[in-house]
From TrEMBL:
Name used for this protein in its record: Tetraspanin
Compartments in which it is found: Membrane
GO cellular component, one term: plasma membrane
Organismal lineage: Eukaryota, Metazoa, Ecdysozoa, Arthropoda, Hexapoda
Keyword entries, A-Z: Membrane, Transmembrane, Transmembrane helix
Length: 206
């Protein structure tokens, strides 16, 4: 393999090392955020971190061994990540879609609360809210406010409903994520370009 390919292998493995570290950090962030972030976002972080770490390890092994199929699989995973980032970048600007997602999440939990009292506790503690649209939702089903509706050391329940609170939180998270999306997109695109080049070189060597 020529000097350009050798240099590209070194650069790509260095980028994979960074990707693996970022994957571990994202998993750690998801773990720390378990009690404070929306469940859907925590799951997303776990999946993202795990995929990044797995892809980085697979890429390093395939590139070091110049193994075509391992490197090709790694390249496909990176391509899938690139496509998902492009879709998420477009989706992040659709505030109505984000609000609809948050609303559906709370409504599912509220329906569960009606059948299983206590189902809303985690949602209310996470978003600092009470009821689906407000505290009166509990009065409408003839139930007292649960402890999760109250601020600590107070006797007044949160006056905001969980749909409004969840929408606000989801928008904050997605807007924050979108600030770094272009950098992540560019980084992933560079990795994909290098990986694709090496896959073609490894294939010709077979």
């Amino acid at each position: 393999m020529g000097c350009p390919s050798g240099a590209m292998k070194c650069v790509l493995n260095a980028m994979n090392a960074v990707l693996a570290v970022l994957g571990i950090l994202v998993i750690a962030l998801a773990t720390v955020s378990l009690q404070t972030a929306p469940p859907a976002y925590v799951i997303y972080l776990y999946v993202l971190g795990s995929v990044n770490f797995f892809a980085a390890m697979l890429g390093c092994c395939g590139i070091c061994r110049e193994h075509f199929w391992m490197t090709a699989t790694y390249t496909v995973i990176i391509l899938a990540s690139l496509v998902s980032q492009i879709i998420r970048k477009a989706y992040a600007f659709d505030s109505d879609a984000i609000k609809d997602f948050a609303t559906a999440d709370v409504e599912r939990t509220w329906l569960d609360e009606i059948q299983n009292p206590g189902a809303m506790d985690k949602t209310q503690e996470t978003y600092k809210c009470c009821g689906k649209t407000g505290p009166n939702d509990y009065a409408n089903i003839n139930r007292p406010y649960p402890a999760s509706c109250y601020r600590k050391m107070t006797t007044s329940p949160y006056d905001i409903g969980c749909i409004a609170a969840a929408q606000k939180k989801f928008l904050e998270i997605f807007n924050y994520s979108s600030n770094s999306a272009w950098g992540n997109l560019a980084y992933t695109a560079i990795i994909f370009a290098f990986a694709f080049y090496l896959v073609m070189r490894f294939r010709r060597k077979q």
